[in-house]
Amino acid sequence: MLVSQELSECGGKLVKYHCILHQEQLCAKSIGLMDVMRDVIKVVNDIRSKALCQWKFKVMLYHQKIRWLSRGKVLRRFFDLHDEIRAFQESKIGSIQVPIDKKWLSGLAFLMDVTGLLNVLNVQLQGKDQIIIQLFDHVRAFKQKLLLLRRHLSAGNLAHFPGLREAGMMKEKLPEYDAVLSNLIQEFHSRFEDFRHNATDLVLFAQPFTISVDTVSDDLQMELIDLHCDSELKNKFRSLPLTDFYKCVPANRLPKICKQAQVMLSLFGSTYLCEQTFSLMNF
């Protein structure tokens, strides 16, 4: 806030985004079916407390220790080992009883499928050398995937639900699963509102030669026309990475376009750069 205030007093404007990776993790935590997750955690903790039994469930226990999204791997392991876990519960060793029947397994499989997709998105949003438009594309693609999943689910198409297909779909659970997807879509919509408000700027940055002049702000229109009509820059745009292309845009001739690009390039949504900086600091 102090940086934003200081910049405003100097006549500038700070473009702010909430940490994209953090927003995605908050969306992940909003998934329903938490009763299933609680059951899984209780059983896993019960297994952990029985030292002699841990070797069989070692991988599952490892993933349960770490952050929330990694619990998607716990769900996968739990699903794969559900017969063994049921036997563990029925033995005198297990002290926590969870009804691992077809209905419960159906909920576990659905939760496993959705968290699996979230894990893929989480990996996509991390790492170095990613600029804001790439993160924007990952989130936009994921929202489209959620919409597709919801349409498929309503039609009984389980092509993209491998776990649910294996466990067997329970028709009476369909409204609950649909509500989970609907809530997740809404959560992404609200938490990534920054993207919607700045969509034109992002498109201008990523597709400067195809965006309509009429869609950008008045102060950029004349320069954008000059850019559209520059054959040499157009050829460079086709052959160079986006970051290298903007190094070729002449700041003396297209200063506002260059400044807009600098703003976009200064935005990053993962913690990679912060972590890299802190690792170089001596305390």
Q: What do you see in this structure?
A:
- It is a single chain.
- By secondary structure, this protein is an all-alpha fold.
- The chain has 2 domains: 101 residues, no CATH class; 161 residues, no CATH class.
- It is built from 17 helices and no strands.
- Helix 2 packs antiparallel against helix 7, helix 8 packs antiparallel against helix 10 and helix 14 runs antiparallel to helix 15.
- The longest helix is centred in the middle third of the chain and has 23 residues.
- The radius of gyration is 24 Å and the shape is elongated.
- 25% of the residues are buried.
- It comes from Ictalurus punctatus (Channel catfish).
- This is General transcription factor II-I repeat domain-containing protein 2A.
Could you name the key traits of this structure?
single chain; 283 residues; mainly alpha; 2 domains; 17 helices; elongated; General transcription factor II-I repeat domain-containing protein 2A
**Span of the ends, CA to CA:** 26 Å
Could you list the spans in which at least 5 consecutive residues all have pLDDT below 50? 1-12, 14-24, 59-69, 273-283
Q: SSE order in H/E notation?
A: HHHHHHHHHHHHHHHHH
Instruction: Provide the helix percentage.
Output: 55-70%
Q: What is the count of helical runs?
A: 17
How many E-type strands?
Answer: 0
Sheet with the most strands, sense and barrel status:
none
Q: Average pLDDT value?
A: 78
Strand percent estimate: under 5%
Structure class:
mainly alpha
Shape: elongated
